[in-house]
Amino acid sequence: MVGSFLNVVIYRLPKMMELSWHNECEFLLNGKEPEQHATAFNLAFPSSRCPHCDASIMPWQNIPVVSYLLLGGRCANCSARISPRYPIIEIITGLLSAYAGFYFGFTWELLATLFFLWALLTLTMIDVDHQLLPDQITLPLLWLGLLLNTQNVFVSINDAVIGAAAGYLSLWSVYHVFKLVTGKEGMGFGDFKLLAALGAWMGWQMLPVIILLSSLVGAVVGSLLLALQRKGKSTPIPFGPYLAGAGVIAFFWGDFLIKNYLQFAGIH
Question: At what angle do helices 135-149 and 2-30 cross, to 10 degrees?
């Protein structure tokens, strides 16, 4: 059920932001107050509808995964195909949540971890769709990580604060060096904030693991995508999904990876 709600956030939050930006620009440029629409558009309203025929989706047609399978992946009204990404996101949300429950048990750490995982999944898909990492998600994630670690939930508050600052400044530095050398922007500011949030949750010690994993996977997958889609090297590729994926790996298995690397390198 949470995965179904995340699908709503992934689809609607960027549209809500675009509408807000449009209204702000209209006011700044022309002094026009934003138009009052008859129908509210937010995460709760209007109810879900088919993007093809605009028919309302009934509650029994909106049961996560089950309804998709029973309807054969098609709209009940117009029989248009429904993207399989919706049940896939619901399944991934369920699997990640179940693993977190297995890992932590019924604890306060589990509650925090669920929010962490759901936020990263949402950010991943929004970045894939729009190359955007909304402040509405990254900043609360950052502050929540710091607040939790004032009680040493995952790491000490010193490690969390240093992790947040180092996470932001590391990519900020790369961005400005790249821009100075090439005259181009290599990444968005949302990537800085996301890595800062990961540092706030896991401490500065996990930043090398996250940066290394995300860079390696991003380089390999990005090159393959460009080759398959026959696009130029200047085609922008979202980095947020790789940061988020590396963050999940580091969160659950970071200590294991570091320990085995040190043993392999002969460092004790």
Answer: 120
CA distances (Å), origin 37, targets 19, 34, 49: 11, 9, 18
Tell me which H or E stretch contains 10: helix 2-30
Residue pair 3/93 in contact by the 8 Å Cβ criterion: yes
Best CA proximity match to 158, nearest among 167, 149, 166: 149
Q: Which residues contact 153 (CB under 8 A, 6 or more apart)?
A: 108, 109, 112
The per-residue pLDDT for range 15-43, each reduced to its tens digit, is 999 988 888 888 888 877 766 665 677 88
Residue 35, phi then psi, degrees to nearest 5: -70, 140
Helix orientation angle between 157-182 and 189-202, rounded to the nearest 10 degrees: 160
Phi/psi region, residue 74 (left: phi>0; alpha: psi -120 to 50; beta: rest), is: beta
Confirm if 87 and 65 have CB atoms less than 8 A apart.
yes
- Residue-wise pLDDT for 182-208, tens only, equals 888 878 899 999 999 999 999 999 999
User: Which of 3, 207, 191, 5 lies closest to 96, judged by CA?
Assistant: 3
Q: Model pTM? A: 0.90
**C-alpha count within 13 angstroms, C-beta hemisphere, residue 57:** 19
The label of the residue with tokens 């998709």 reads 68
